[in-house]
Fold each of these.
Amino acid sequence: MKYHILTLFPEMIEQGLHTSILGRAINNGYISLETTNIRDFSANKFNRVDDYPYGGGAGMLMQAQPVYDAWKAVAKPAEGKKPVRVLFMSPQGKTFSQEMAKELAQEEELIFLCGHYEGIDERVIEEIVTDPVSIGDYVLTGGELPAMVMIDAISRMVPGVLKNEDSGVTESFQENLLEYPQYTRPEVWESKKVP
């Protein structure tokens, strides 16, 4: 699985995902991670990518052109291959679930678009996004954390990422049931015995 992340904060993604199980999966070639800084596609000398909303309103919006140009730089489908799905982290999107993670794990590549500020110019969203996705009903400062959550969950479904392949099959949300309580040794801890 190859992940492309379009973001204003590539270091946040790289530092968060190059550790633990995912770091090992990257090192072993089961998944790959490529961050693209949207600022690199700014057309002004200050690398500015935001502007005031057209018609007024609070906050700033990411402009369409730098986002579109960043997407064009990574979304080069090979001859005869279907276009790469673009997931936009958005509270208006479909709620992410374990079933969605399994479905997305079947793809060869995914592009994650991480917004910031008040969001992204709707015109570019309509042009490039295939899947708006939400991780819940709350507001975050950007799409980087939701993208990292989704990449973690999806990667667990990619063959080879988990050392024990059964771990991905017997997950907490398998068949809409929660996992049972689990215990370690010793059998008695702080006068509490394993049932």
Note: Residues 84 and 173 are 27 Å apart (CA to CA).
Amino acid sequence: MIFDNSNISFSNSDIGRGIILPRRLTSELAELFGIMVGDGCIHLRESPPNRIKYEILIYGHSEEDLDYHNLTTSNLFYKLFKIKPYIRDVYGKNAIKICVTSKAITSFLIKKMGFISGNKIKNACGIPQYFFKVKDKTIVAALIRGIADTDFYLVFKIRKDTKFKEHHYPLIAGQFASRALTEQLKELLNELGIHSHLEKGIRKLNNKL
């Protein structure tokens, strides 16, 4: 998949920092997009006088996710766009946010990659259809890896068909507010030959970013 970036505008700050944009869909770009689907958002904020602030944010736990974002997320941004994001603590919470401000990058993620700005749940953010047409399965796997690294977890359950009473059966699980997204993930996992199933449940989210 080749991107025509001729209609993407660069701000003076973008030009001064030497920001570049990818010309084709790669595993690295798919992985970063997966991270964004899992824990990221894009905000277009009004910033006086008569300006718009283009902001990319990715949230994580201040201890459990710090090394991951310092190494993986930060390096992906630099390899793809030649910019290093900055990481800040979220005041009053055990959380961090990874920040990138760039008109060109936000425009690229929205116009070319199909990322939805604003509230992802309200705006039904999911996986763009072009990922379902990609023939290179390493790109699909990278997308799922990005989502899994931010939103999946390991649990151990009791299997009723065994004599063991302890929680010993390992499962990799993820919980999403969007059923459409979970169905899309299941379809892509099936394409990779990975068995999965959907469970409907309700979970109270406390201090969810």
Note: The longest helix spans residues 66-81.
Amino acid sequence: MRKPIQSTHFCSPANQQGVVLIVALVMLSVLTFIAITALNTSGIEEKMAGNTQERHRSFHTAETGLANTFANASLFVLTEDGSLTDCPTGSGSKLDLVNVGDYSADGTVCTAFLMWTQPPRGSGYSASSFSAAHFEMTSTGTTDSNAHTVLHAGAFQIAPGGS
């Protein structure tokens, strides 16, 4: 003999009033939290991108100063006069850069004579007929937002006269 099928009684719609509202509010709260987190993250990323851009601008300003120094032989002075108090070495020559590029960056390049040596091996210059004058350059670049870069470079110049 078969058993009669028992029917399961579900709650009537009248008993479920408000459940959908609570679920919807929870889902809305979760979505709101995700949106706020995304906004905060994008704001931080925007600031990071701006700082990186400013660092690049100051770096390129300092590099421009080095390039301008290499293009101007008169900045390689073979004396130590000690008159450049705002340069690290206090001597040599100074090149000021004002409003470099479209972003109003400023810079300074200080070039100081260090010493005389023999020409480097393999340079094709005779050590008995030529000498190498060594220079140290310090180039700074600063943007309006105070991003600051300092580059150090060295160079030598071959001159007649053996050591």
Note: The longest helix spans residues 19-70.
Amino acid sequence: MIDALSKGDFNYNPFGGLSDDESFRVIVPNRHVDQIIADIDNSAKQVIELVGKKGRGKTTHLKYIRSLIGTGDLFELSKRENFRNELLSGPRELLFIDSIHHLPLLDRLKLYKLVDKLVITTHISRAFEYSFSGVKYKGYRFGGVNKDQLQLVLQRRMELAMSNTILPKISEKDIDKLLSIYGDDFRSILKFLYQKYSDL
């Protein structure tokens, strides 16, 4: 797959999990990021949904956008159990929620009305829910990576993990092979590479 990767070249496996700060250093921002930030900055009350399949970068982009905005609480619902009371405790100006589907429907409907600007990730659009709640929304579809993005993100990950100055190159043939097997599912690509190079 990727030629000449050896243990001595890296401080850790570059294809494993990264901290948020490290993720922001390797991210290739989605083309919607500037518009999403503009939507957050305007005065209209609305839900902003980042929608797409698993492994397409929704959570990373949600955190990245929040870091650029610099305000608003973030709830990662897949990592918490006792969040309901805190979420529904009262009105808020801005809130970021990852994996909104972990919140029951009736609680979601309440939340849409409580928060002025709600930015969420979801696997499927919840347009009917917003309409039912009488809340405006904007949806942004997130696909995975294309060839150029994948090559750049993998190169940046290896660069971040390097212990020397010679950065291995990823060939176009390697990128094409990964995309032919996994499509645009970036999470599955990373999982495969992490396991393949588990000795790094």
Note: Residues 132 and 191 are 39 Å apart (CA to CA).
